Amino acid sequence: MADSFASASFEFSCSTEEMALLDEAFAAAESLACDFEPINPTPAFLAAFPATKDGDPFSGLLALFDDPQFPIIGAELASGLPPDEPGQCPIHIFGTTEFEPRPLASIIQRCCQETLRKAPITFEWAYTSTPARVGEFGGGRCAIFTDRIDIETTAEALRKLVDGKAATPREDGSGAEADAPVGVVQVARALVLNAPEIFADAAFLRWLEAPAAKFSWHRGGQPDEWSDVIVLVDPSLTGEGSDSDMPQHIWDRIVALCEANLPREPGMPHIMVRLTNLEI
Predict the structure, then answer these.
(1) Among 6, 104, 173, 258, which has the minimal tally of Cβ within 10 Å of its Cβ?
(2) What is the pLDDT at residue 83?
(3) Residue 171: its pLDDT value, please?
């Protein structure tokens, strides 16, 4: 069995106020990931991460993660370096095992708008494996602007190149696509598992009928051919995911299906596994 790592290390300078907000966001995410109660959010935090659910002041932060139940940044925040200029705070962000570039980029964008108005913040990351396993190496790059995040893995870049969709340079040599659309589009991976025996499992039915929200077309009662269920599996294939609270033997089967058909790609959107109930 191979051990997979996602790692990065980069520095930039921001204002002391932005540093305090970053520190608060990192601390809140870590507390929530460990099922601890975070300290009460400051007004600056609430302004940067507006709540998406009534009564939950941290829901705006959690919404930045593919799986809000597991708000893992996979990086540490360090300061204490000599300032470049008064009021500025050089910081170092680094992670060596579970670095998650997408939520981190969103947090930086929310916290560092003043700094981003001067220049974008950029970083790179790497995927590695030991022992060396095919499909476990790669990386990516990210550029954070005030109004957008341009992020891409090496796997995505290669797919575009092979498919003939790589960006063609503008006349100014910027390399950006001439008609690049506004917005963020992410390519996600998906699998379909037709398993009527899962829908006939009494423990699974109790989970499916429980009040917690599900990504499903099931409308109660006996499942039929329209009762599809979609679950999300962490792309690092660690066994985490939005629906890992379902019966363990079924969740283990879903994760094993992903491991058998897809490489680990930490930092990518969660894998969508569609469960169907079709008699073939």
Answers:
(1) 173
(2) 55
(3) 42
**β-pair type (138-144, 149-153):** antiparallel
Q: In what order do the strands lie in the sheet with 138-144?
A: 76-78, 88-95, 3-15, 121-130, 138-144, 149-153
The answer to whether the CB of 7 falls within 8 A of the CB of 101 is no
Mean pLDDT of 110-132: 93
| Domains held by the chain: number | 2
Distances from the Cα of 269 to the Cα of 137, 181, 190, angstroms? 17, 20, 10
DSSP of 232-247, one letter per residue?
A: EE-TT-SS-BTTTTS-
pLDDT digits (tens, 9 = 90+) for 145-161: 998 999 999 988 888 88
Full domain range(s) for residue 245: 190-276
Instruction: Please report which confidence band the pLDDT of residue 33 belongs to, taking 50, 70 and 90 as the band edges.
Output: very high
Which of 267, 190, 261, 260 is closest to 236 using CA atoms? 267
How many CA atoms lie less than 13 Å away from 99 in the CB half-sphere?
A: 24
Residue type, 86: P
Q: From the CB of residue 121, how many other CB atoms can be counted at a distance below 10 Å?
A: 22
Residue 172 in this model has a pLDDT that exceeds 70: no
Residue 116 has pLDDT above 90, yes or no: yes
Has residue 175 been placed in a domain? Answer: no
The predicted pLDDT at position 165 comes to: 57
Helix/strand/coil for 194: strand
> Residue 76: helix, strand or coil by DSSP?
strand
CA-only gyration radius of the chain, Å:
21
Return the SS3 of 104.
helix
Same domain, 197 and 156: no
116 vs 21: CA distance, rounded Å? 15
Copy the structure tokens of residue 48.
Answer: 């940067």
**Predicted local confidence at residue 235, as pLDDT:** 85
Q: Is residue 211 part of a domain?
A: yes
